[in-house]
Amino acid sequence: MHTRKVRLFVATSLDGYIAGPDHDLSFLHLVEREGEDYGYTVYADETDTVVIGRNTWEKVSSDGASSPFKEKQVYVISSSGNPESGPVVYYSGNLTQLIRALKSSAGKDIQIEGGPQMIGELLNSRLLDSICISTIPILLGSGIPLFREGLHPVKLELQQAGSFPSGLVQATYKVIY
Amino acid sequence: MHTRKVRLFVATSLDGYIAGPDHDLSFLHLVEREGEDYGYTVYADETDTVVIGRNTWEKVSSDGASSPFKEKQVYVISSSGNPESGPVVYYSGNLTQLIRALKSSAGKDIQIEGGPQMIGELLNSRLLDSICISTIPILLGSGIPLFREGLHPVKLELQQAGSFPSGLVQATYKVIY
Predict the structure, then answer these.
(1) Is residue B1 part of a domain?
(2) Do the Cβ atoms of A161 and B156 come within 8 Å?
(3) Tens digits of residue pLDDT in B88-107
(4) What residues does the Bacterial bifunctional deaminase-reductase C-terminal domain cover (chains A, B) (predicted)?
(5) Could B138 and A147 be called an inter-chain contact, meaning their C-beta atoms sit closer than 8 Å?
(6) For all residues of chain A together, what is the average pLDDT?
(7) In the A/B pair of chains, how many CB contacts fall below 8 A?
């Protein structure tokens, strides 16, 4: 059986923000280039499950029901879970337990779409396997950081690094616990 | 006349810390390799002046007088300036004014050795010209961040990027004001 990996694929400013003030994502436009997805399609092809924070979900799903993740099983981490099932499940239980259950079941890799709280919990639970960061050439100065303060230190192993004509620098790390 | 550039050459963890708790720099050992200085010698050859924060100075200068920067003119930014002159000057005046004066005088580039306060002031004064960040493959979780919160947003232009067998990823940016 394929060992399912829990993978983060995310863009940040050089000062480490995944969004500016008021969840502003317009800085991502700086690196938009025709026909260049910076590896997202390959990443998405290797995952069949998405675990996403409630706030992020509300940003990417305009009506709160239809999924931009196509055929994937989506778990929306939300304090107010509901009994919905199907391709989008609201999940109000323990994140660590959900991820452990997913990893021990069969499937492709697991795509994490979340902010500092979710990433922090996954790192502290030693469940995040891989981090791919695309650094956008800007300092935002304030906003939502990717990593929250107070994490346990953790070593990384560089697996791939490169840059693009837009100025985006991408590096993929395996997390070493 | 050569236009003197104000340049930062610095290493951070992937989560953006230049030092761990208690100014711990031991994470830098992770990428120490025989004969590999990650471009520092070239950088140092292109500068003849160092502007350094008092805390950083006290870390790198064991006796507070002898300079690890060899022949370079050193300005130690310190609230308690003293009338010393020579290769090491304690400077208690306005940092922005000092940098403006240095940039309008002849010389090689200017090397910045400072923390979030100095970097923030130089960015907000539009005086920092170039940022070279070497990212060490580790998440420190807490410590001294390179960039403080609340900076004005500023765009960057990627000038060079690459990675090394140690896992260090280096990117150099021109600051676009």
Answers:
(1) no
(2) no
(3) 888 999 999 999 999 999 99
(4) 4-168
(5) no
(6) 93
(7) 106
Interface of B with A in 79-138 (CB under 8 A): 123, 131, 133, 135, 137-138
| CA distance to partner chain A, nearest, from residue B14 (Å) | 9
SS3 B16: coil
Q: Which candidate from B16, B141, B158 shows the least CB-CB separation from A167?
A: B158
- Domain with B36, as residue range(s), is 6-176
Task: Report yes or no on B115 lying in a domain.
Answer: yes
Provide CB contacts within 8 A for B127, sequence distance 6+: B6, B96, B99, B100, B103
| Tens-digit pLDDT profile for residues A131-152 | 999 999 999 999 999 999 999 9
Length of chain A: 177
Q: What is the total count of domains within chain B?
A: 1
ipTM value for the complex: 0.94
With contact defined as beta carbons under 8 Å apart, do B169 and A152 qualify? no
Which residue of B38, B148, B158 to mutate against A (max A Cβ within 10 Å)? B158
From residue B38, alpha-carbon distances to B33, B99, B133, B168 in Å are 10, 26, 11, 9
* Residue among A151, A158, A169 whose CB faces B161 most closely: A169
C-alpha closest to that of B76 among B19, B60, B123:
B60
Note whether B155 contacts A30, CB cutoff 8 Å. yes
Taking the alpha carbons at both ends of chain B, their separation in whole angstroms is: 22
Q: What is the domain-level CATH number for residue B158?
A: 3.40.430.10
Cβ atoms within 10 Å, residue A167: 20
The pair of structure tokens assigned to B141 is 């979780």
- The H or E element spanning position B13 is strand B6-13
Residue B11 lies in a domain: yes
